[in-house]
Amino acid sequence: MPIPSDFSSPSRMSAKERAYAQIQRWIIDGTLQPKEQLIDAELAEALGVSRTPIREALLLLEVQGLVEVHPGKATIVKDIDKDDILKLYPVFASLHALATEITTSLILPEQIEKLKMLNARFAESIENKQPYQAMEMDEQFHNLIVELSDNLYISSFSTTIQTHIRRFKYVFLKQHETSTYSSVQEHAAIIEAMEQSDPISASAIMKQNLLRPMNELYKLI
Amino acid sequence: MPIPSDFSSPSRMSAKERAYAQIQRWIIDGTLQPKEQLIDAELAEALGVSRTPIREALLLLEVQGLVEVHPGKATIVKDIDKDDILKLYPVFASLHALATEITTSLILPEQIEKLKMLNARFAESIENKQPYQAMEMDEQFHNLIVELSDNLYISSFSTTIQTHIRRFKYVFLKQHETSTYSSVQEHAAIIEAMEQSDPISASAIMKQNLLRPMNELYKLI
DNA sequence: AAACATTTGTCCGTATGTATA
DNA sequence: ATATACATACGGACAAATGTT
C-alpha cells in the first residue's frame, strides 16, 4: 500500500508561514481592502492559531510594504493609489533588465528551449482568451530569466515588486487583460538576442517589455 | 529648569527595534561572525529583554539575508564569501542608476548645491586620509540621490544592499580605504549631467561609479 | 531503540500606550 | 481632565521538533 509520505515536500509549513501566505492572498485579492484595520486577535481566531504567528506574519507583510503597523494604535492594510504603478514598474524593469543581461551570458541551450516553450504557452493563453493564465505564463517567463541570473537579491526584490503589481491589477482591474500579443513578440526578440549572446539588446528589450504595459495600464485607469 | 522633553525625537525605540539594530551592528562589524550560532535565549539575556522581541528581530534579519533560521535546529549568522560582491554591486548599481535617472528630472537647484557640498566633504575626507568618514560621505551622496528619487522600493532595496556591502567591507578589509579620488570626479560629472538635465549620462556615470569599485575590491581580495 | 538535551515554535496572560467618552 | 476601552508590545511557560547519547 503506497504511503503518500510527502512530508518534506512543502516541508510542513509553520503557522507563521501559513498565516503569512493567507493574509497576503487576502490583501492581494482584495478580501482585505486598503486601509482596512487588521486586529491580530481576530486574524488569530480566523486562522485557528494564536496571536504570535499572526504578529510575525504581519511583521513580514509590513517589511514587504503591504501592511502598516502603528504601534499602540492600529495595524492597517496599506493604501494603494494608481500612481504606485509609476513607482513599481521602473524598478521592476531595471531589475529584470539586469537579470536578462546576466542570464544572457550564462544561459544554456536547453534553458533557451524552455523559454521558447513558455512563450509559446503564453501566446496560446492569449489566443484562447484566458487572461489569468496568460498573466501566469508571462510571469513564469520572466521568473525563469530571473532565476537563471542566479542572484538572490534580484529574485527577492523582484518577488516583492511582483506581489505589489499583482495586487494593483486585482484592485484596479476587474479582468486581468493586461497581456497583449506584442509582448509575445518582445519575448521572442529577447530569446533571439540571448541566442546571439547580445546582453545589451536583450536587456533593452526586456526593459521595454515592462515599461510599455506600465504606460498602457496608467492610461487605462 | 529646562526639561529635555525629547520624547518623540527617536520616538522611543521599541525593544524589537533596539534588538534589531544591535544584532545587525554585531553582524556587520564581525562581533557575530559568519556561521556563528545565535540562540535567542542568550541574546534575550544579553539585551535584557524577553525572547519575543529577539525573535522578531531575527525574523527581520532573516528577511534581510543576514541570518538563516533552521526551524527546530538552529539560527546562524549567514555565511559570506568574496563572490557575493559580484552579486551585490550590479544590483546596487542598477538601483542607483535608476534613482539617478529619476532624480535628474526632479531635482531642484538647492538640492544640487547640497550634492556639491556633500561631494566637497567627501573629497576633504579622502585628502585628510579619513577612510571611514570618506565612506560615510560617499554613502550620504548616494543616499541623497536615492531619497530624491522618491521611490520607496528603490530606497528600501538600496538600504538592504548597502548593509551587505558594509558587512563585506568589515569582514574582508581591515581598513575601509575603498574610496578613491576618481570617485569624487565621477560624482562631479553626475552633478554636471543633472544640471544639464541629462538623465542618460547621469545614470551611466552612476553605474560606472559603482561597478568600478566592485572590480577593484574583487581584485584586491 | 529510546530517553535526553537543546533550540525553535506557539500559546496566553499582562503591561503599555493611545484614543475616545 | 479623568476614566475607560482597545490594540499593540512584551514576558514567561509549554509544546514540538531535531540530534545525540
Question: Keyphrases for this structure?
Answer:
two-stranded antiparallel ribbon, disordered N terminus, homodimer, 2 domains, mainly alpha, 9 helices, Four Helix Bundle (Hemerythrin (Met), subunit A), Arc Repressor Mutant, subunit A, elongated, DNA-binding, 221 residues
Describe what you observe in this structure.
The structure is a homodimer of 221-residue chains. Chain A has 221 residues and is mostly helical. The first copy, chain A, folds into two domains: 15-77, Orthogonal Bundle (Arc Repressor Mutant, subunit A); 84-220, Four Helix Bundle (Hemerythrin (Met), subunit A), CATH 1.20.120.530. Helix content of chain A is 69%, strand content 4%. Chain A has nine helices and two strands; from the N terminus they run H-H-H-E-E-H-H-H-H-H-H. The first copy, chain A, has helices at residues 15-28, 40-47, 51-64, 84-104, 109-127, 131-148, 152-172, 181-195, 199-220, and strands spanning 67-70, 74-77. Chain A has a two-stranded antiparallel sheet. In chain A, helix 4 crosses helix 6. Chain A is elongated and about 55 Å long. Residues 1-10 of chain A have low confidence and may be disordered.
